[in-house]
Amino acid sequence: MATSLARNMLFRAASRRSYQASPQMSRSACLTSPTSCAVNHILGFARWFASYPPHEVVGMPSLSPTMESGTISAWNVEEGAAYSAGDVLCSVETDKATVDFEAQDDGVVAKIIVAAGAGEIPCGTPIMVTVEDQGSVAAFKDFLPESSAAPPTNPTAAAPEPEMAAPTPTPIVSTPAAVVAAPASGERVIASPRAHTLAKEKGFGEISALRIVGTGPGGRIIAQDILEYDPSTAPAVAAQAAIPQPVTAAAPAPKAAPAPLPKPVVGSGYTDYSLPASAMELASRLNTSKKNVPHYYLTIDLNLDSLLELRSSLNSTIKDGGISVNDLLLKAAAAAMKTVPAANASWMDTFVRVYDSVDINVVVGNGSTLYAPVIRDVGRRGLKAVSDDFAAAAAVVEGNEDAPTAAGFGDVGTFTMVNLGMFGVKSCAPIIREPQACALALGAIENRIVPNDDTESEDIYKESVMMTATLSCDHRVVDGAVGAQWLSAFKNHVENPVTLLL
């Protein structure tokens, strides 16, 4: 009886949490036998779980494929407050953006574990506890993260109970519940406490007997699935379950004000400034890239006389928005990729991946922050279309407010280009952004005295508009010869810009 109860309690908790035996348990409790170790742990876990009303421990969500941690910038709910599916619980600052974390089900906030602005939290770390009703909130007044990590141990027990680790919830856009064949006997069905309650209130019985696939994270059945479930149409819907249904985008939730960073700490002759999560994540990625990627650098001078003449001619025929030098340089970089496609590639440990589309991250800033929006398919699109995309990205950066969440911001392309010429910098060797193989830095545009290649002119030298370009390459993907070929092709397209219109 006790073992059966423990198994049921463990099954219910497993739908909310994963767990891993602690080193102490491995060394002591498991010295007897694996069977007794497992039974003792299950019974201990059941005793711990039963000490609290039915609840759910919510971990820091993973809001992007590369997100490893985040910072809660603001809470939109308070302890004891009820919320509905779709409500914004909190705003999470990731390495790329500030994203709203929406509730997947109805519930009540029992405990907020991590306060806004508390710093960077690894994905999966408990941040809040939710319950089904207001009456259960008081039981979690003294709930601590430690209590969500492991059940309380018996002072007389031979070993502590194993620690519990919260799973990483993934926000998923809600879609209409699909009805399918009923699960096989004994098959695990994951559902929220509210969904279980609604199923019984509506007379559906146990959720495990329903022909339904949940629309919550990981296929979890939520309250909305039960509300939309119609037993009379179950067979008909089951036949159509595999047909994709259009998803209506939800209206954007109001933005929560980000939590201010801690005040600077003034010391003896220095001041310490706290960094946002995005800055720490960027620093970590740059550090990793510089360590892992064997960089080498190539530099070349570009004559912009012909390119500037073409730009002037094109702009005389364009009414709305002109073509910039950067637009033409983007097209020249894409054209060079067509000539030397081996540079438009990534190192994949056991093979090299060469891309068909040239997607260029362009580094732009607003004086305080740098962004690298991606301009898609630069090689196959027209010059004006590329120019419009770049102008739109630059306008967003200048406005600053929506830059982290705008389309293309945070995405990684196949190549990166940065122009520091506006600061008077003549050359720069950029750090490659993994998994890209190359990055191009452009220096200041300046007038220089150069040899005159006009054989009909009496002047030996002439004044030309020049720029210096530096290409950083990943030697694993692009060797010196390939890098030189690409840079030569880029120079040819810049100095003969009519090729960009072909």
Comma- or semicolon-separated keywords:
lipoyl; OB fold (Dihydrolipoamide Acetyltransferase, E2P); acyltransferase; 2-oxoacid_DH_actylTfrase; eight-stranded mixed sheet; disordered N terminus; alpha+beta; CAT-like_dom_sf; elongated; four-stranded antiparallel sheet; 20% strand; Dihydrolipoamide acetyltransferase component of pyruvate dehydrogenase complex; 12 helices; 502 residues; Chloramphenicol Acetyltransferase
CA radius of gyration? 30 Å
Kindly identify the CATH topology of the largest domain.
Answer: Chloramphenicol Acetyltransferase
What is the CATH class name of the largest domain?
Alpha Beta
What is the CATH superfamily label of the largest domain? Answer: Chloramphenicol acetyltransferase-like domain
How far apart the termini lie comes to 80 Å
Largest sheet: 8 strands, mixed
Strands, count: 22
Family: Belongs to the 2-oxoacid dehydrogenase family.
Region (Disordered): 145-169
Protein name: Dihydrolipoamide acetyltransferase component of pyruvate dehydrogenase complex
EC number: 2.3.1.-
What does this protein structure show overall?
By secondary structure, this protein is an alpha+beta fold. It folds into three domains: 1-52 and 143-167, no CATH class; 56-136 and 172-242, OB fold (Dihydrolipoamide Acetyltransferase, E2P), CATH 2.40.50.100; 293-501, Chloramphenicol Acetyltransferase (2-Layer Sandwich). It has twelve helices and 22 strands. The strands form six sheets. Strands 13, 16, 17, 18, 19, 20, 21 and 22 form an eight-stranded mixed sheet that branches. Strands 2-9-7-4 form a four-stranded antiparallel sheet, with no helix packed on it. A hairpin with a 4-residue loop joins strand 16 and strand 17.
